[in-house]
Amino acid sequence: MKKLKGWGYYSHSKKIFDTERERLESNFIKSKFQLGVFCPNKSLLKEFEYDYTFFIGYSTQVFVSEFEGAIGYGSYKDCLFALENNIPVLVIRQRGKKLSAEPLESMEWILEKNYSRYARLLTKKDSPKKVDADISQK
């Protein structure tokens, strides 16, 4: 699939749609990586209702944001599709007062309850003990 130069896909929880956090993360991607952003709750992407792989396939990069230390099934599928198609995935995290984007190393299921599935994301900057502590506090 041909990539659209200068475009990235921003995968994140519906719980942060139309919030200040979404605006900050989207602007971070645009300014730091000099990319346009496909955002699932903006413009024509709303018409595709849950199947955003079309846009991911045309992206040069995927950015994923966690909510309360994990991602939901939709973002998990987005990351999996990107990785299977050799599209780099970066995890957006707040480190102190700054946002950072760290390459995704692995994903694993942490919880399944109330018919919802959650996965945690690991990057090189994560230590297993730190991630376990973060998740157990949620």
Question: How would you describe the overall organization of this protein?
Answer:
This protein is α/β, with parallel strands linked by helices. The chain is 30% helix and 33% strand. The chain has a 7-stranded mixed β-sheet, sandwiched between helices. The longest helix is centred in the N-terminal third of the chain and has 14 residues, at 20-33. It is globular and about 35 Å long. Residues 128-138 have low confidence and may be disordered.
Topology of this structure?
Blueprint: E1 7-11, H1 20-33, E2 36-38, H2 53-58, E3 61-65, E4 71-72, H3 73-84, E5 89-95, E6 98-113, E7 116-123, H4 128-136
Parallel strand pairs: 1-2, 1-3, 3-5
Antiparallel strand pairs: 4-7, 5-6, 6-7
**For the residues shown, what is the average pLDDT?**
79
Helix segment tally: 4
- Tell me the overall shape: globular
Structural class: alpha/beta
Secondary-structure element order, as H and E?
EHEHEEHEEEH
Q: Kindly state the percentage of residues in helix.
A: 25-40%
**Strand elements, count:** 7
Largest sheet: 7 strands, mixed
Strand order of the largest sheet: 2-1-3-5-6-7-4
Cα separation of the termini: 39 Å
Radius of gyration: 14 Å
Low-confidence stretches: 128-138
What is the percentage of strand-forming residues? 25-35%
